[in-house]
Amino acid sequence: MQSAQKRLVVMIVILILSAALFVLGLFILPDTIVVQITASGADGNTLPKPLGLILPLGLSAFFAWLFYKRGEGRNLALALLGIVLYGLTFYFNR
Fold this sequence. Notes:
Layout: H1 4-28, E1 32-34, E2 46-48, H2 49-70, H3 73-92
Antiparallel strand pairs: 1-2
Helix pairs in contact: 1-2, 1-3, 2-3
């Protein structure tokens, strides 16, 4: 099991990265962002920018905190999934 100090550092890095991607998204993404692509490649569901950006932030923050508290790898994977969702959001809305 990882030490609490290492888990704290990982949690802080995830939180800082997620917050930075949130702020970046507020500046560069359109007011309505695509959050789902259909099978044909067309835009699917859309959300207002603040809601579409807060969801991955919440996912990363919550599971990074759980990783810090419990040290389970699945929580780390879910925290990193929030960062991956930011990448997909930026890609779909370029």
